[in-house]
What we know:
The complex is a heterotetramer of chains A (350), B (152), C (385) and D (156). Helix content of chain B is 8%, strand content 39%. By secondary structure, chain B is mostly beta strands. Chain B has one domain (19-150). Chain B has one helix spanning 27-38, and strands spanning 14-25, 42-46, 52-53, 70-73, 76-85, 98-105, 111-117, 129-134, 145-150. Chain C is α/β, with parallel strands linked by helices. Chain C has 14 helices and 11 strands. In chain C, helix 3 packs across helix 14. In chain D, strands 7-6-5-8-9 form a 5-stranded antiparallel β-sheet, with no helix packed on it. In chain D, strands 3-2-4 form a 3-stranded antiparallel β-sheet. The interface between A and C is large, with 61 and 63 residues. Strand 5 (195-198) of chain C pairs antiparallel with strand 5 (76-85) of chain D.
Amino acid sequence: MREVAVVSFAQSPTTVEDARSEVEILQPVLHQAVERSGIAREQIGFTVSGSCDYLAGQPFAFVMGLEAVGAWPPIRESHVEMDGAWALYEAWARLQHGDIDAALVYAFGKSSTGDLPKVMTLQLDPYYLAPLWPDAISVAALQARALLDAGAHTERDMAEVAARSRRDAASNPNAQVSGDTSADALLQEPYVSTPLRAHDCPSAGDGSAAVVLAAGALAREVAERPVWIRGIDHRIEPHALGARDLTTSASTRIAAAAAGASSDKIDLAELYAPFSHQELILRDALGLNGQTAINPSGGALTANPMMVAGLIRIGEAASRIARGEADRGLAHATSGPCLQQNLVCVLEGE
Amino acid sequence: MPSSGAAPGDVLTAEHVLEYTYTRSVGPVIGRFFTGLREQRIEGIRARDGRVICPPTEYDPATGEQLDDWVPVADAGEITSWTWVAEPRPEHPLAEPFAWALIRLDGSDTAMLHAVGARAPDAVRTGARVRARWRAERRGHITDIECFEVVE
Amino acid sequence: MAQRTAVIGVGQTKHDTKRDDVSMAGLVREAALRALEDAGLSFADIDAVVLGKAPDMFEGVMMPELYLADALGANGKPMLRVHTAGSVGGSTAIVAASLVQAGIHERVLTVAFEKQSESDAMWALAPKIPFQMPLVAGAGGYFAPHIREYIRRSGAPDHIGMKVAVKDRLNALRNPFAHLHMPDISLRMVEESLMLWDPIRYLESCPSSDGACALVLASEKAASAAPNPPAWIHATAVRSEPIGMAGRDEVDPQAGRDCAADVYAQAGISDPRAQIDVAEIYVPFSWYEPMWLENLGFADVGSGWKLVDDDSTALDGDIPINASGGVLSSNPIGASGMIRFAEAALQVRGMAGEHQVDGARIALGHAYGGGSQFFAMAIVGRERP
Amino acid sequence: MSEAAAPESVTMMDAPIRLTYSYTPGVAQSEFLRALTERRILGQRCSTCEQVYVPPRGMCARDGIALEGTFELPDTGVVSGFCIVNIPFAGQAVECPYVSASITFDGADIPIFHLVQEIDPAAVHVGMRVQAVWSEEPQPSMQTIRYFRPLEAADA
């Protein structure tokens, strides 16, 4: 495949936005990402975004996103109703054609404007599941219980994930939640939805992120240390919660193998695990061991802007590699109930 | 930061309600399952690998093949996972605190997500036996089963 | 270089006001299975699935690709979901083709659908938003002023819109998948239909349909094994411009012009009217046929209506437009763009049946969406590019 | 066989969905909407392309840059496009037939959508000069402009 690198990344802080509209959150982030890339706007041959109409409860939310891009003269553009990580996949595929050398990828969403766990119910089977209105936290809790019952992990393991995430988030100015805490302290907290406690679940957060990708020579020209996409793949599995093994992630395993994730040492992994037990499942599926720093940014437990958090994983991993803090990293994104769909991206510094 | 002169306190907000009653056509497989529920009867469907799937999916989850081998399934089974709902929402099947559970019905190899009526979380556990509590007025809908109840 | 790519399978549902015999999964499945059968393949042969549809509010299912994964045999495969408003069917096909052109996959299944009968299009496209005027009465209310402005600029006579409406409904009689079959359609019938959004009459408008369309995109190697003739992709292009840009021309949008110029340049087309044998263009309201004829370069600015008036765009004209009956005869919104691409492919494969344009070798598929701001186009040909 | 017909199979289900959101039009549009309560129309000029946006959105859609500061425009303008709506729909504000028009305020480069009244719909034309008719009970909403009326005596 053609060499494609992440050459810049920008994100907004994840917050509950009272004031700004989605497009007002997005505009400065787009501006920063393009500016940091060193690539002129006219040289960006493809633009693609990820967002979801149901977050704001308005059809065509993405149409307003285009207002922030500066799409004049008209641009080559696409949109996925998916997390921005999949928009990045589309851009990576488009760059393989060879006729353009740079692409802009962005994602945005205000998930705090609605009752997010209830909104997410609409992702479920519309005949058997959605009419019962199980919310997203309850559905995740069913997976967590199944994982605990399987015996390999405990509530303490989940609390350790949450505590580490909060500690790491203290050095991340874009995180929504952070703090010096311990698993012991967190285990004293009450359940939200057994066996999940508040710290096992993400907060609804608003935000945006943007990545500029460049191919081959252009990437080397503009970036001090281009972060090459060595492999990227994504897979989906069946929808019915009761018909798949919720304690493992078959689709992550396939995507990781196809992306070449298992072939070499991984210094850091940014995993989109919005629930603490999902990190445990993903670590197992990816075969990550103590060699790999997991979610040094604090991960999605501390900042979960829906539709954006997957793209942020790629951006966070790439930023650390670009700064020389790591050489080889893995970024992961997920979509759907109980890790139904997963993307794995292997990144490596020049 | 805000990109214009107004302070955040000046920013307007209003309630936006997205409300609609959709009319779904259910097709032959879901339709047959719902028709069974109306008659207080549960059916599953056999997948290509021999597993009985309940509630029945229209297509084989693994291969996408069309399924049509119907299998009767009991209205009682076993909890395979659960979580407690301390504060039910108005749209939930039960008004009192209850559990969501994945329930593998006898004769099925997969689990159905539904509500389990129970006094308290300590009355629910993985492996517990449950039986459907049927609604008196049934219309061919997943909520024709009002909930499941623990039977020991 | 992008890899050569072909359409080797085409499938559509019977489009209808309410397909109450199927679930959403059953609907997409019907199109997918027909496309696979055409391609001589089964789900097991497919490397990836790309799904497209317009707003999720039509069906009240958020990201329905998650629930539809099983029905489309996507287990263990990559699956993408595209949404670019009305152009989405075209954009989705282009994303699917891109995956083959990139050399990532050999065979990609792409499906687009809308099951509009699950709700109400007027509501789903424009629910009431706080602080705004609840004025724009559906898509017709949005586009009618642009049509009026076209009529003003071009001086086109009133009967042009009615003529397109009749032509497309007559073409639809030759297409078994079309939603509307109106054997007694006439200019008089169109003229007497209710003026909904003056200057748009009821019969100058598209219907609201349930329907799906599917394509199988294949690499050159995979296409060589296909049982039926492939439609080779000679070019694809997309262009977008912002809806709320001061000074934008909504009647003759720059994004449409640029997209056409791009797709023609790639396909080596300098005179579209002479070199393109048949075109399927996205005409949801009849006046958009002359408008897009100009935007696409089939006619000079201000004279697109003359091609309608002199029957050039009829099935036996020199540039038949929407031989299938077009969006005016079937409009499952999310699928409508892909149907244009599918029909263009059928024409160059010689598989369009009763609405086949004799000897079609080069065809254009066109879709647009949003406020005339998103464009997706493809040129397909009988021969390898 | 029993005489009674077998009950028909289930083919349909209703799915009521109700979601509530806290909507904000954002910083720039809030300023515009608040000014409407004082019968003032605010616009924003792009420093690059000089185009004037009404309502302001805090950015220029052409250049993608942030815009700051607003200025006041008159409540008069021209009809730049219109249609006559004859189709009733849920939540409709006025009775059919009515004129839904794109109206460009004097000094602006992009139109808003609004009603034109006090005129026979058949007499509305592109280029017609109009003026806002304000509600007596000002709200921070586009509905605080009740409609636009013809400005020239010849149109009224």
